[in-house]
């Protein structure tokens, strides 16, 4: 299913939860919507589902307007499946009955699935790993199992659009990885369009064709995961996705940046968005900084050390600001160590000579 969202806004009383959202989603695309709590992700999803009506703008599905100020097609009239954060299971139905109910009552279930409900229920139970729980009631299930029932119910009728709101949030890490693979496989097999709301940027990066980054009811950036990560367009996107450190300084000619705390250095990067040039900021990813014992880089002090197995995460303070650095260097620094920070693509001018560090 293809979707076009145009100039969409939503007000709750005097509060504007969404402002002028524009988004095009192609048939079969996997789109992740990420952003901090309260930025409007769920509101956008509820508008797409048909639970809320827009204040301005419209939503088209397959080139037909299904939501606007004057029109609202009911959720059951849209060919969608939904997985909610809070599962929304029916307490009086077993696992199997949830799947069956959805197969029988979804307006768009294909005839071949309706005719063979028994096989379809078995198939879905297998996919979500609940074969041994078919006759259990919701009260007898763990949070993760309930979430899988919610997923099973949504995918059983094979909807053209799957809306998922934090569908993996209550699973443990191993199950999360399993279900992540299942959803990816499901996406490949079903060719359904998926809109997936999450706080978890790791999941968004790994699964989505396209990421939509939201902040305060607006879209900050839309792009492929790699582009969002390597070419953030705003300071918000740089800090939210991949926790970039926003280094102040001065952009000189030829895309050279001189950091404020080490004016003998210059960093060259042709791929930094215009906003950063205008604001004289250079975003440096935690893994792009290297900590050294010399005095040639940006002076810093180690404030915190977190061992993460093959990486060490340092918090360092630089002239009262705190930055994050991820290092796989073997030499470990201790809290209180005075160190020097270097960026990947760095040159230094020492006594008029330009050297590469
Ligand atoms: N029915 C409502 N009435 C009034 N305000 C609402 C309503 N629904 C949402 N809001 C407000 O709109 C804003 C966006 O909420 P929304 O649930 O879309 O955020 P979110 O990005 O999904 O957050 P989270 O990640 O915490 O679930 C919030 O400030 C919320 O309080």
From TrEMBL:
GO molecular function list: ABC-type transporter activity; ATP binding; ATP hydrolysis activity
Chain segments annotated as coiled-coil in the UniProt record: none
UniProt keyword annotations, A-Z: ATP-binding, Nucleotide-binding, Transport
Gene3D superfamilies: 2.40.50.100, Nucleic acid-binding proteins, P-loop containing nucleotide triphosphate hydrolases
GO cellular component term of the entry, any: ATP-binding cassette (ABC) transporter complex, substrate-binding subunit-containing
InterPro entries: AAA+_ATPase (IPR003593), ABC_transporter-like_ATP-bd (IPR003439), ABC_transporter-like_CS (IPR017871), ABC_transpr_MalK/UgpC-like (IPR047641), Mo/tungstate-bd_C_term_dom (IPR008995), NA-bd_OB-fold (IPR012340), P-loop_NTPase (IPR027417), Transp-assoc_OB_typ2 (IPR013611)
Name of the featured protein: ATP-binding cassette domain-containing protein
Organism of derivation: Iocasia fonsfrigidae
Lineage per the UniProt record: Bacteria, Bacillati, Bacillota, Clostridia, Halanaerobiales
